[in-house]
Protein backbone atom coordinates (compact mmCIF):
# COMPACT_ATOMS: atom_id res chain seq x y z
CA UNK A 1 0.00 0.00 0.00
CA UNK A 2 1.43 3.38 -0.96
CA UNK A 3 1.87 6.22 1.50
CA UNK A 4 -0.70 8.28 -0.45
CA UNK A 5 -3.33 5.59 0.05
CA UNK A 6 -2.48 5.32 3.74
CA UNK A 7 -2.80 9.08 4.12
CA UNK A 8 -6.17 9.04 2.38
CA UNK A 9 -7.41 6.37 4.78
CA UNK A 10 -6.05 8.20 7.83
CA UNK A 11 -7.58 11.55 6.84
CA UNK A 12 -11.08 11.14 5.39
CA UNK A 13 -12.21 13.75 2.91
CA UNK A 14 -14.77 16.43 3.74
CA UNK A 15 -17.23 14.57 1.52
CA UNK A 16 -16.74 11.37 3.54
CA UNK A 17 -17.23 13.24 6.82
CA UNK A 18 -20.42 14.85 5.55
CA UNK A 19 -21.71 11.49 4.33
CA UNK A 20 -21.11 9.52 7.53
CA UNK A 21 -20.28 11.71 10.52
CA UNK A 22 -22.75 14.53 9.93
CA UNK A 23 -25.90 12.36 10.11
CA UNK A 24 -24.39 10.34 12.97
CA UNK A 25 -23.71 13.53 14.92
CA UNK A 26 -27.37 14.53 14.62
CA UNK A 27 -28.46 11.16 16.00
CA UNK A 28 -26.06 11.45 18.95
CA UNK A 29 -27.21 15.04 19.60
CA UNK A 30 -30.83 13.93 19.77
CA UNK A 31 -29.90 11.12 22.18
CA UNK A 32 -27.59 13.24 24.33
CA UNK A 33 -29.73 16.38 24.69
CA UNK A 34 -32.50 14.93 26.90
CA UNK A 35 -29.97 12.78 28.80
CA UNK A 36 -27.81 15.79 29.66
CA UNK A 37 -30.84 17.60 31.07
CA UNK A 38 -32.06 14.52 32.92
CA UNK A 39 -28.68 13.76 34.50
CA UNK A 40 -28.46 17.36 35.71
CA UNK A 41 -31.89 16.93 37.29
CA UNK A 42 -30.78 13.70 39.03
CA UNK A 43 -27.58 15.41 40.21
CA UNK A 44 -29.46 18.23 41.89
CA UNK A 45 -27.60 20.70 39.65
CA UNK A 46 -28.92 23.42 37.33
CA UNK A 47 -30.14 21.96 34.03
CA UNK A 48 -27.63 24.15 32.21
CA UNK A 49 -24.77 22.38 34.02
CA UNK A 50 -25.61 19.16 32.21
CA UNK A 51 -25.78 20.90 28.83
CA UNK A 52 -22.46 22.68 29.46
CA UNK A 53 -20.83 19.34 30.26
CA UNK A 54 -22.27 17.84 27.08
CA UNK A 55 -20.80 20.65 24.96
CA UNK A 56 -17.39 20.60 26.65
CA UNK A 57 -17.17 16.81 26.57
CA UNK A 58 -18.01 16.65 22.88
CA UNK A 59 -15.66 19.44 21.81
CA UNK A 60 -12.63 18.81 24.04
CA UNK A 61 -12.60 15.02 24.26
CA UNK A 62 -13.81 14.76 20.68
CA UNK A 63 -10.80 16.73 19.45
CA UNK A 64 -8.16 15.48 21.91
CA UNK A 65 -9.28 11.99 22.94
CA UNK A 66 -7.57 8.70 22.17
CA UNK A 67 -10.81 6.90 21.24
CA UNK A 68 -12.18 8.61 18.10
CA UNK A 69 -15.70 7.12 18.22
CA UNK A 70 -16.24 7.53 21.98
CA UNK A 71 -18.79 10.20 22.92
CA UNK A 72 -18.24 11.97 26.24
CA UNK A 73 -20.51 14.03 28.46
CA UNK A 74 -22.32 13.91 31.81
CA UNK A 75 -23.03 10.31 32.87
CA UNK A 76 -25.70 8.75 35.06
CA UNK A 77 -22.94 6.82 36.81
CA UNK A 78 -21.79 9.99 38.57
CA UNK A 79 -25.20 11.54 39.24
CA UNK A 80 -25.67 10.11 42.74
CA UNK A 81 -22.12 11.04 43.75
CA UNK A 82 -22.50 14.61 42.47
CA UNK A 83 -25.88 14.95 44.21
CA UNK A 84 -24.24 14.09 47.53
CA UNK A 85 -21.38 16.52 47.00
CA UNK A 86 -23.75 19.35 46.07
CA UNK A 87 -25.76 18.71 49.22
CA UNK A 88 -22.59 18.70 51.32
CA UNK A 89 -20.43 21.36 49.65
CA UNK A 90 -22.78 23.44 47.51
CA UNK A 91 -22.78 23.65 43.73
CA UNK A 92 -19.95 26.18 43.35
CA UNK A 93 -17.52 24.18 45.49
CA UNK A 94 -18.54 20.98 43.69
CA UNK A 95 -17.61 22.66 40.41
CA UNK A 96 -14.17 23.41 41.88
CA UNK A 97 -13.88 19.74 42.85
CA UNK A 98 -14.73 18.73 39.26
CA UNK A 99 -12.01 21.04 37.94
CA UNK A 100 -9.45 19.70 40.43
CA UNK A 101 -10.43 16.10 39.64
CA UNK A 102 -9.70 16.90 36.00
CA UNK A 103 -6.18 17.98 36.94
CA UNK A 104 -5.70 14.66 38.74
CA UNK A 105 -6.80 12.86 35.57
CA UNK A 106 -4.37 14.91 33.49
CA UNK A 107 -1.56 13.89 35.84
CA UNK A 108 -2.59 10.22 35.65
CA UNK A 109 -2.71 10.40 31.88
CA UNK A 110 0.73 12.00 31.80
CA UNK A 111 2.08 9.20 34.01
CA UNK A 112 0.61 6.64 31.58
CA UNK A 113 -1.17 4.62 34.23
CA UNK A 114 -4.46 4.26 32.34
CA UNK A 115 -4.09 0.50 31.86
CA UNK A 116 -3.73 -0.03 35.60
CA UNK A 117 -7.27 1.32 36.14
CA UNK A 118 -8.55 -1.70 34.24
CA UNK A 119 -7.29 -3.91 37.07
CA UNK A 120 -10.41 -3.03 39.08
CA UNK A 121 -12.67 -6.08 39.19
CA UNK A 122 -15.53 -5.86 36.66
CA UNK A 123 -17.81 -7.17 39.41
CA UNK A 124 -17.07 -4.02 41.44
CA UNK A 125 -17.65 -1.71 38.45
CA UNK A 126 -20.90 -3.40 37.42
CA UNK A 127 -22.03 -3.50 41.05
CA UNK A 128 -21.27 0.21 41.43
CA UNK A 129 -23.29 1.06 38.33
CA UNK A 130 -26.17 -1.19 39.38
CA UNK A 131 -26.25 0.41 42.82
CA UNK A 132 -26.30 3.85 41.22
CA UNK A 133 -29.11 2.70 38.94
CA UNK A 134 -31.17 1.54 41.90
CA UNK A 135 -30.61 4.86 43.69
CA UNK A 136 -31.64 6.80 40.57
CA UNK A 137 -34.80 4.72 40.19
CA UNK A 138 -35.77 5.04 43.87
CA UNK A 139 -35.30 8.81 43.75
CA UNK A 140 -36.72 9.67 40.35
CA UNK A 141 -39.78 7.43 40.57
CA UNK A 142 -41.13 9.90 43.16
CA UNK A 143 -40.91 12.69 40.56
CA UNK A 144 -42.51 10.40 37.96
CA UNK A 145 -45.43 9.94 40.32
CA UNK A 146 -45.64 13.70 40.84
CA UNK A 147 -43.92 13.99 44.21
CA UNK A 148 -40.44 14.81 45.50
CA UNK A 149 -37.48 12.49 46.20
CA UNK A 150 -36.29 11.90 49.74
CA UNK A 151 -32.78 12.21 51.18
CA UNK A 152 -31.66 8.58 50.88
CA UNK A 153 -32.59 5.18 49.47
CA UNK A 154 -34.28 3.93 52.65
CA UNK A 155 -36.49 7.02 52.96
CA UNK A 156 -37.35 6.85 49.25
CA UNK A 157 -38.39 3.22 49.66
CA UNK A 158 -40.32 3.90 52.86
CA UNK A 159 -42.25 6.83 51.35
CA UNK A 160 -43.01 5.03 48.06
CA UNK A 161 -46.31 3.37 49.15
CA UNK A 162 -47.64 6.75 50.28
CA UNK A 163 -46.58 8.29 46.99
CA UNK A 164 -48.45 5.58 45.06
CA UNK A 165 -51.59 6.21 47.12
CA UNK A 166 -51.34 9.97 46.54
CA UNK A 167 -50.80 10.36 42.79
CA UNK A 168 -50.63 13.79 41.19
CA UNK A 169 -52.84 13.57 38.13
CA UNK A 170 -51.22 15.03 35.00
CA UNK A 171 -47.65 14.81 36.37
CA UNK A 172 -48.06 11.11 37.10
CA UNK A 173 -49.65 10.46 33.70
CA UNK A 174 -46.83 12.21 31.83
CA UNK A 175 -44.09 10.43 33.80
CA UNK A 176 -45.60 6.98 33.35
CA UNK A 177 -46.28 7.67 29.67
CA UNK A 178 -42.63 8.62 29.12
CA UNK A 179 -41.43 5.46 30.85
CA UNK A 180 -43.90 3.34 28.87
CA UNK A 181 -42.75 4.78 25.53
CA UNK A 182 -39.10 4.10 26.36
CA UNK A 183 -39.80 0.50 27.37
CA UNK A 184 -41.97 -0.12 24.31
CA UNK A 185 -39.33 1.43 22.02
CA UNK A 186 -36.89 -1.27 23.06
CA UNK A 187 -39.20 -3.98 21.69
CA UNK A 188 -39.66 -2.41 18.25
CA UNK A 189 -38.27 -4.46 15.34
CA UNK A 190 -35.27 -3.03 13.55
CA UNK A 191 -36.37 -0.61 10.86
CA UNK A 192 -36.68 3.06 10.01
CA UNK A 193 -38.82 3.82 13.04
CA UNK A 194 -36.34 2.15 15.41
CA UNK A 195 -33.57 4.44 14.10
CA UNK A 196 -35.31 7.42 15.71
CA UNK A 197 -33.82 7.76 19.24
CA UNK A 198 -36.25 6.52 21.88
CA UNK A 199 -35.35 9.26 24.42
CA UNK A 200 -36.15 11.93 21.83
CA UNK A 201 -39.54 10.36 21.04
CA UNK A 202 -40.41 10.02 24.73
CA UNK A 203 -39.39 13.58 25.70
CA UNK A 204 -40.92 15.28 22.66
CA UNK A 205 -44.07 13.16 22.97
CA UNK A 206 -44.44 13.93 26.68
CA UNK A 207 -43.86 17.64 26.06
CA UNK A 208 -46.48 17.76 23.29
CA UNK A 209 -49.04 15.92 25.41
CA UNK A 210 -48.40 18.29 28.32
CA UNK A 211 -48.93 21.28 25.99
CA UNK A 212 -52.17 19.85 24.57
CA UNK A 213 -53.46 19.09 28.08
CA UNK A 214 -52.28 22.50 29.29
CA UNK A 215 -50.97 20.53 32.26
CA UNK A 216 -50.00 22.45 35.36
CA UNK A 217 -46.68 20.69 36.04
CA UNK A 218 -43.14 21.81 36.91
CA UNK A 219 -40.99 22.36 33.82
CA UNK A 220 -37.33 22.84 32.92
CA UNK A 221 -35.94 26.28 33.71
CA UNK A 222 -33.08 27.65 31.61
CA UNK A 223 -31.65 31.14 31.73
CA UNK A 224 -32.60 33.27 28.75
CA UNK A 225 -28.92 34.12 28.23
CA UNK A 226 -26.63 31.09 28.15
CA UNK A 227 -23.63 33.11 29.34
CA UNK A 228 -25.48 34.29 32.42
CA UNK A 229 -26.07 30.65 33.38
CA UNK A 230 -22.36 29.98 33.79
CA UNK A 231 -21.55 29.53 37.49
CA UNK A 232 -17.97 30.15 38.53
CA UNK A 233 -16.43 27.64 40.96
CA UNK A 234 -15.57 28.55 44.54
CA UNK A 235 -13.00 27.10 46.90
CA UNK A 236 -14.19 25.54 50.17
CA UNK A 237 -13.95 27.35 53.45
CA UNK A 238 -13.08 26.27 56.96
CA UNK A 239 -13.79 22.62 57.76
CA UNK A 240 -14.98 21.78 54.23
CA UNK A 241 -11.47 21.17 52.88
CA UNK A 242 -11.42 17.54 53.99
CA UNK A 243 -14.70 16.77 52.23
CA UNK A 244 -13.45 18.71 49.21
CA UNK A 245 -10.35 16.52 48.82
CA UNK A 246 -12.49 13.39 49.19
CA UNK A 247 -14.74 14.71 46.42
CA UNK A 248 -11.77 15.42 44.15
CA UNK A 249 -10.24 11.97 44.52
CA UNK A 250 -13.61 10.22 44.30
CA UNK A 251 -14.59 12.02 41.10
CA UNK A 252 -11.16 11.44 39.55
CA UNK A 253 -11.13 7.70 40.29
CA UNK A 254 -14.72 6.89 39.35
CA UNK A 255 -14.78 9.13 36.25
CA UNK A 256 -11.47 7.65 35.05
CA UNK A 257 -12.59 4.07 35.57
CA UNK A 258 -15.92 4.64 33.83
CA UNK A 259 -14.28 6.44 30.89
CA UNK A 260 -11.61 3.79 30.39
CA UNK A 261 -14.10 0.92 30.60
CA UNK A 262 -16.33 2.73 28.10
CA UNK A 263 -13.30 3.17 25.83
CA UNK A 264 -12.52 -0.54 25.94
CA UNK A 265 -16.18 -1.41 25.30
CA UNK A 266 -16.30 1.03 22.38
CA UNK A 267 -13.27 -0.69 20.82
CA UNK A 268 -15.29 -3.91 20.65
CA UNK A 269 -18.03 -2.24 18.59
CA UNK A 270 -15.96 -1.26 15.54
CA UNK A 271 -12.90 -2.23 13.51
CA UNK A 272 -11.34 1.22 13.21
CA UNK A 273 -8.32 2.65 15.07
CA UNK A 274 -7.72 1.13 18.52
CA UNK A 275 -7.95 3.11 21.75
CA UNK A 276 -5.03 5.08 23.18
CA UNK A 277 -6.10 4.96 26.82
CA UNK A 278 -3.47 7.32 28.22
CA UNK A 279 -4.34 9.99 25.67
CA UNK A 280 -8.04 9.43 26.41
CA UNK A 281 -7.50 9.86 30.15
CA UNK A 282 -5.56 13.08 29.60
CA UNK A 283 -8.32 14.45 27.34
CA UNK A 284 -10.99 13.52 29.89
CA UNK A 285 -9.01 15.43 32.52
CA UNK A 286 -8.73 18.56 30.38
CA UNK A 287 -12.48 18.40 29.68
CA UNK A 288 -13.37 18.01 33.36
CA UNK A 289 -11.14 20.90 34.35
CA UNK A 290 -12.76 23.16 31.78
CA UNK A 291 -16.27 21.93 32.62
CA UNK A 292 -15.75 22.62 36.33
CA UNK A 293 -14.40 26.10 35.64
CA UNK A 294 -17.51 27.10 33.64
CA UNK A 295 -20.09 25.48 35.94
CA UNK A 296 -20.56 22.11 34.25
CA UNK A 297 -21.04 18.59 35.59
CA UNK A 298 -18.22 16.02 35.58
CA UNK A 299 -17.60 14.29 32.26
CA UNK A 300 -16.92 10.67 31.36
CA UNK A 301 -16.98 8.54 28.25
CA UNK A 302 -20.52 7.19 27.81
CA UNK A 303 -21.02 3.81 26.16
CA UNK A 304 -24.73 4.35 25.33
CA UNK A 305 -24.03 7.48 23.28
CA UNK A 306 -20.94 5.89 21.78
CA UNK A 307 -22.93 2.84 20.66
CA UNK A 308 -25.54 5.13 19.11
CA UNK A 309 -22.72 7.00 17.36
CA UNK A 310 -21.25 3.82 15.86
CA UNK A 311 -24.63 2.34 14.94
CA UNK A 312 -25.49 5.59 13.13
CA UNK A 313 -22.44 5.12 10.88
CA UNK A 314 -19.82 7.43 12.41
CA UNK A 315 -16.31 6.93 11.01
CA UNK A 316 -14.20 9.63 12.69
CA UNK A 317 -14.01 11.82 15.79
CA UNK A 318 -15.86 14.61 13.95
CA UNK A 319 -19.21 13.04 14.78
CA UNK A 320 -18.61 13.59 18.52
CA UNK A 321 -17.36 17.12 17.86
CA UNK A 322 -20.35 18.03 15.67
CA UNK A 323 -22.87 16.69 18.18
CA UNK A 324 -21.46 19.22 20.66
CA UNK A 325 -21.79 21.97 18.06
CA UNK A 326 -25.48 21.16 17.62
CA UNK A 327 -25.93 21.17 21.39
CA UNK A 328 -24.24 24.56 21.68
CA UNK A 329 -26.47 25.89 18.90
CA UNK A 330 -29.55 24.59 20.73
CA UNK A 331 -28.51 26.26 24.00
CA UNK A 332 -27.83 29.64 22.39
CA UNK A 333 -30.60 29.75 19.77
CA UNK A 334 -33.38 27.41 20.90
CA UNK A 335 -32.88 27.18 24.65
CA UNK A 336 -36.33 28.64 25.27
CA UNK A 337 -37.85 25.41 23.90
CA UNK A 338 -36.52 23.52 26.93
CA UNK A 339 -38.92 25.49 29.13
CA UNK A 340 -41.77 23.40 27.68
CA UNK A 341 -40.30 20.09 28.90
CA UNK A 342 -41.97 18.81 32.11
CA UNK A 343 -39.60 17.63 34.84
CA UNK A 344 -41.67 14.48 35.29
CA UNK A 345 -40.90 13.56 31.67
CA UNK A 346 -37.16 13.85 32.32
CA UNK A 347 -37.63 11.81 35.50
CA UNK A 348 -39.30 9.05 33.46
CA UNK A 349 -36.25 9.07 31.17
CA UNK A 350 -33.95 8.78 34.19
CA UNK A 351 -35.90 5.86 35.68
CA UNK A 352 -35.40 4.03 32.38
CA UNK A 353 -31.67 4.85 32.42
CA UNK A 354 -31.41 3.62 36.01
CA UNK A 355 -33.16 0.36 35.18
CA UNK A 356 -30.73 -0.27 32.32
CA UNK A 357 -27.77 0.16 34.67
CA UNK A 358 -28.91 -3.04 36.43
CA UNK A 359 -27.75 -5.27 33.59
CA UNK A 360 -29.12 -8.82 33.82
CA UNK A 361 -26.57 -10.11 31.29
CA UNK A 362 -23.75 -8.93 33.56
CA UNK A 363 -25.39 -10.62 36.55
CA UNK A 364 -25.64 -13.94 34.69
CA UNK A 365 -22.01 -13.72 33.55
CA UNK A 366 -20.74 -12.87 37.03
CA UNK A 367 -22.76 -15.72 38.50
CA UNK A 368 -21.22 -18.09 35.96
CA UNK A 369 -17.72 -16.89 36.91
CA UNK A 370 -18.39 -17.09 40.64
CA UNK A 371 -18.11 -13.32 41.19
CA UNK A 372 -21.75 -12.64 42.04
CA UNK A 373 -21.05 -12.19 45.81
CA UNK A 374 -18.61 -9.33 45.04
CA UNK A 375 -21.26 -7.72 42.83
CA UNK A 376 -24.00 -8.03 45.46
CA UNK A 377 -21.76 -6.69 48.25
CA UNK A 378 -20.90 -3.66 46.10
CA UNK A 379 -24.57 -3.02 45.28
CA UNK A 380 -25.58 -3.32 48.94
CA UNK A 381 -22.82 -0.91 50.00
CA UNK A 382 -23.69 1.69 47.35
CA UNK A 383 -27.42 1.57 48.08
CA UNK A 384 -27.30 1.05 51.84
CA UNK A 385 -24.35 3.31 52.80
CA UNK A 386 -22.85 5.46 50.04
CA UNK A 387 -20.93 5.19 46.78
CA UNK A 388 -17.43 5.22 48.26
CA UNK A 389 -18.34 2.68 50.93
CA UNK A 390 -19.84 0.42 48.28
CA UNK A 391 -16.71 0.59 46.13
CA UNK A 392 -14.50 -0.04 49.17
CA UNK A 393 -16.57 -3.03 50.28
CA UNK A 394 -16.58 -4.40 46.75
CA UNK A 395 -12.80 -4.08 46.39
CA UNK A 396 -12.34 -5.71 49.79
CA UNK A 397 -14.61 -8.60 48.80
CA UNK A 398 -12.74 -9.01 45.50
CA UNK A 399 -9.39 -9.18 47.33
CA UNK A 400 -10.74 -11.72 49.84
CA UNK A 401 -12.10 -13.81 46.97
CA UNK A 402 -8.69 -13.71 45.30
CA UNK A 403 -6.97 -14.80 48.51
CA UNK A 404 -9.51 -17.58 48.93
CA UNK A 405 -8.82 -18.78 45.39
CA UNK A 406 -5.07 -18.62 45.94
CA UNK A 407 -5.56 -20.80 48.99
CA UNK A 408 -7.46 -23.51 47.12
CA UNK A 409 -4.68 -26.08 47.13
CA UNK A 410 -5.91 -29.68 47.14
CA UNK A 411 -3.76 -32.40 48.71
CA UNK A 412 -4.96 -35.99 48.31
CA UNK A 413 -3.06 -38.86 49.94
CA UNK A 414 -3.66 -42.54 49.13
CA UNK A 415 -1.75 -45.56 50.38
CA UNK A 416 -1.40 -48.58 48.06
CA UNK A 417 1.04 -51.47 48.15
CA UNK A 418 3.19 -49.75 50.77
CA UNK A 419 3.48 -46.54 48.72
CA UNK A 420 1.91 -43.26 49.76
CA UNK A 421 0.71 -41.39 46.67
CA UNK A 422 0.34 -37.62 47.20
CA UNK A 423 -1.45 -35.54 44.53
CA UNK A 424 -1.14 -31.75 44.89
CA UNK A 425 -3.41 -29.68 42.63
CA UNK A 426 -4.98 -26.23 42.49
CA UNK A 427 -3.02 -23.15 43.56
CA UNK A 428 0.04 -23.69 45.74
CA UNK A 429 0.76 -20.23 47.13
CA UNK A 430 1.60 -18.71 50.49
CA UNK A 431 -2.09 -18.81 51.44
CA UNK A 432 -2.24 -22.58 50.94
CA UNK A 433 1.06 -23.44 52.64
CA UNK A 434 -0.56 -24.16 56.07
CA UNK A 435 -3.03 -26.57 54.46
CA UNK A 436 -0.20 -28.29 52.54
CA UNK A 437 1.95 -28.65 55.65
CA UNK A 438 -0.95 -30.08 57.67
CA UNK A 439 -1.69 -32.69 54.99
CA UNK A 440 1.95 -33.72 54.49
CA UNK A 441 2.45 -34.09 58.25
CA UNK A 442 0.07 -37.06 58.11
CA UNK A 443 2.44 -39.06 55.88
CA UNK A 444 4.17 -41.66 58.11
CA UNK A 445 7.90 -41.16 58.55
CA UNK A 446 10.26 -43.48 56.70
CA UNK A 447 7.76 -44.43 53.97
CA UNK A 448 8.06 -44.44 50.23
CA UNK A 449 6.20 -41.42 48.82
CA UNK A 450 5.27 -40.53 45.23
CA UNK A 451 4.31 -36.88 44.80
CA UNK A 452 2.35 -35.66 41.77
CA UNK A 453 2.67 -31.86 41.49
CA UNK A 454 -0.23 -30.87 39.20
CA UNK A 455 -0.68 -27.27 40.33
CA UNK A 456 -1.74 -24.42 38.04
CA UNK A 457 -0.20 -21.76 40.32
CA UNK A 458 3.06 -22.04 42.24
CA UNK A 459 4.68 -19.17 44.10
CA UNK A 460 7.98 -19.03 45.97
CA UNK A 461 6.41 -19.81 49.34
CA UNK A 462 4.77 -22.95 47.98
CA UNK A 463 8.01 -23.91 46.24
CA UNK A 464 10.06 -23.61 49.42
CA UNK A 465 7.45 -25.29 51.61
CA UNK A 466 7.32 -28.40 49.42
CA UNK A 467 11.08 -28.50 48.90
CA UNK A 468 11.72 -28.08 52.62
CA UNK A 469 9.28 -30.88 53.49
CA UNK A 470 11.00 -33.23 51.04
CA UNK A 471 14.42 -32.38 52.41
CA UNK A 472 13.25 -32.94 55.98
CA UNK A 473 11.39 -36.15 55.13
CA UNK A 474 14.51 -37.82 53.73
CA UNK A 475 16.18 -37.42 57.10
CA UNK A 476 13.68 -39.94 58.49
CA UNK A 477 14.95 -42.47 55.99
CA UNK A 478 12.00 -42.05 53.63
CA UNK A 479 12.11 -41.84 49.85
CA UNK A 480 10.27 -39.23 47.80
CA UNK A 481 9.70 -39.56 44.05
CA UNK A 482 8.70 -36.21 42.53
CA UNK A 483 9.30 -34.08 39.49
CA UNK A 484 11.97 -31.43 40.21
CA UNK A 485 10.16 -28.28 41.27
CA UNK A 486 12.44 -26.21 39.05
CA UNK A 487 10.93 -28.06 36.10
CA UNK A 488 7.39 -27.34 37.33
CA UNK A 489 8.23 -23.65 37.61
CA UNK A 490 10.00 -23.53 34.24
CA UNK A 491 7.15 -25.30 32.47
CA UNK A 492 4.57 -22.93 33.94
CA UNK A 493 6.63 -19.92 32.82
CA UNK A 494 6.95 -21.35 29.32
CA UNK A 495 3.20 -21.87 29.09
CA UNK A 496 2.52 -18.29 30.25
CA UNK A 497 5.05 -16.63 27.92
CA UNK A 498 4.08 -15.93 24.26
CA UNK A 499 6.05 -17.87 21.66
CA UNK A 500 7.74 -15.94 18.86
CA UNK A 501 8.47 -18.83 16.52
CA UNK A 502 6.57 -22.00 15.58
CA UNK A 503 3.81 -23.02 17.92
CA UNK A 504 5.10 -24.64 21.06
CA UNK A 505 3.70 -28.02 22.04
CA UNK A 506 0.55 -27.77 24.11
CA UNK A 507 0.64 -28.66 27.79
CA UNK A 508 -2.98 -29.13 28.66
CA UNK A 509 -1.90 -31.06 31.74
CA UNK A 510 1.35 -31.20 33.65
CA UNK A 511 4.00 -33.64 32.38
CA UNK A 512 5.51 -35.65 35.19
CA UNK A 513 9.10 -36.73 34.75
CA UNK A 514 10.35 -38.13 38.00
CA UNK A 515 13.50 -37.95 40.01
CA UNK A 516 14.28 -39.39 43.38
CA UNK A 517 14.54 -37.45 46.58
CA UNK A 518 16.62 -39.57 48.94
CA UNK A 519 19.18 -38.85 51.65
CA UNK A 520 21.40 -37.63 48.81
CA UNK A 521 19.19 -34.56 48.34
CA UNK A 522 17.18 -33.14 45.47
CA UNK A 523 18.16 -34.66 42.13
From TrEMBL:
DNA-binding as a keyword of this entry, yes or no, is no
- Superkingdom of origin: Bacteria
Q: Please report the record's description of how this protein sits within the membrane.
A: Multi-pass membrane protein
Cellular component terms per the entry's GO annotation: membrane
Q: Where is this region: Disordered?
A: 492-523
Low complexity bias spans: 495-523
Q: What is the lineage of its organism?
A: Bacteria, Pseudomonadati, Myxococcota, Myxococcia, Myxococcales
Pfam families under this entry?
Sulfate_transp (PF00916)
Tagged with keyword Cell membrane: no
Report the main location listed first in the record: membrane
Q: Which subcellular locations apply to this protein?
A: Membrane
Query: Would you kindly state one Gene Ontology biological process term found in this protein's UniProt entry?
Result: transmembrane transport
**What protein name does the entry list?**
SulP family inorganic anion transporter
Tell me where in this chain the SLC26A/SulP transporter domain is found.
Answer: 18-369
Transmembrane parts of this sequence: 22-42, 49-71, 91-111, 123-145, 165-188, 200-220, 240-261, 281-304, 324-351, 372-404
Alphabetized UniProt keyword annotations: Membrane, Transmembrane, Transmembrane helix
Amino acid sequence: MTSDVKAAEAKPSLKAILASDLPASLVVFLVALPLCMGIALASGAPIMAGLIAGVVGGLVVGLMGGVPLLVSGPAAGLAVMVFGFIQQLGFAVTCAAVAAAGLVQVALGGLKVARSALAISPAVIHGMLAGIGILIVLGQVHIVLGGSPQSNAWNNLRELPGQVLNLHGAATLLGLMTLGVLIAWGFLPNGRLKKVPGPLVAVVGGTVVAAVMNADVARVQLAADALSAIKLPALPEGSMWGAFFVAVLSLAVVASAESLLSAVATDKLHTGPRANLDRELLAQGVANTLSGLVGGLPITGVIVRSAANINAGAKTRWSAVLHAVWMLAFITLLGSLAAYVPLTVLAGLLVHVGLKLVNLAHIRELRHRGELPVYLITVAGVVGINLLAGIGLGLGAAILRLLWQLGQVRVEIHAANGVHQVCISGALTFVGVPKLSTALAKVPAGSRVEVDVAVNTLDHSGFEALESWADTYRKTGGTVTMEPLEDVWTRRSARAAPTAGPAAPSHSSPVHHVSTLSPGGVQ
